[in-house]
Amino acid sequence: MIARAGVIGWPVGHSLSPHIHRFWLAELGIQGRYEAVVVPPDWLADAIDRFRTGEWRGFNVTVPHKESIIPLLDCLNPLAQAIGAVNTVVAIGEGRFEGRNSDAPGFLASLSAVSAIETDRPAVLLGAGGAARAILAALNSVGISEIRIANRDRVRAEILASSFPAKVWDWADRGLMLDDAGLLINATSLGMVGQPQLELDLIRLPTRAIVTDIVYRPLATDLLLRAQERGNSVVDGLGMLLHQAVEGFSAWFGATPKVTQELRAHVLAAIAHAG
Ligand code: NDP
Q1: 58 and 30 share a domain?
Q2: Model confidence over 38-82: pLDDT tens digits?
Q3: Based on the domain organization, do 224 and 246 belong to the same domain?
Q4: For residue 121, what are the domain limits?
């Protein structure tokens, strides 16, 4: 039986996951299939029941199902439990599904591929949406001494800080948060194509700090360009997207794929083609 996996979402046509997983299937010579399946919210429960056949090894989950899928699964791993969102589902036998969240390890792997994380210096996290929540769990898991978080809607940041240890700052003070920081992360959608730029004065940011932006359309965001110009090391958002896919692929197809320059080029071409 050919192993099947895929991505469910609504819409799902924009997903880059098929490009990533099909690249690895071809590269590793694995007879598997990876499909994009449109699943509107009303069909979610039915769709999952249909996937409970031996053929489906699991699937990725994208908007708007990352949280609503949780009660429909049989169990969650501790990270997905802590983050409260699932982006990877793995069949664990007898038609049962485990929910996982690979955004946190994907973020760390992407960062580590470029530079060691300095845990004894503050990390600054901008944003309090779904991606910020996974990143906060990741920062916490590596024992960063101080995590500062700011979000336009301060209440959302406070909700995050009630689950993970972090100091909440006002969005208006985001420039002041950069004093002494070892890591700056933009986890808002600001800077993405069609969105306003992130307005942030970097003057207080030490030049040895690493700056990462999880926005990957465009790859070189205004934040990353400005940071690079003043001498900071920068990490773009594509790395997180590629590294988060490793966990699902390994679980479904039984081989650990690599994030290479060839994969990056392949996915960048898909992004350029999508416009
Ligand atoms: P959410 O919708 O959950 O969160 C959006 C975040 O952006 C919130 O913090 C929101 O603040 C903030 N924001 C939006 N507009 C503004 C604005 N005008 N001014 C200030 N803040 C604003 O999205 P996600 O967390 O899922 O995704 C965020 C970004 O990260 C997206 O661009 C997404 O494409 C990217 N992403 C990248 C991944 C990767 O692998 N590289 C993985 C997941 C996401 P507020 O709460 O105040 O609305």
Answers
A1: yes
A2: 999 999 999 999 999 879 999 999 999 999 999 999 999 999 999
A3: no
A4: 105-235
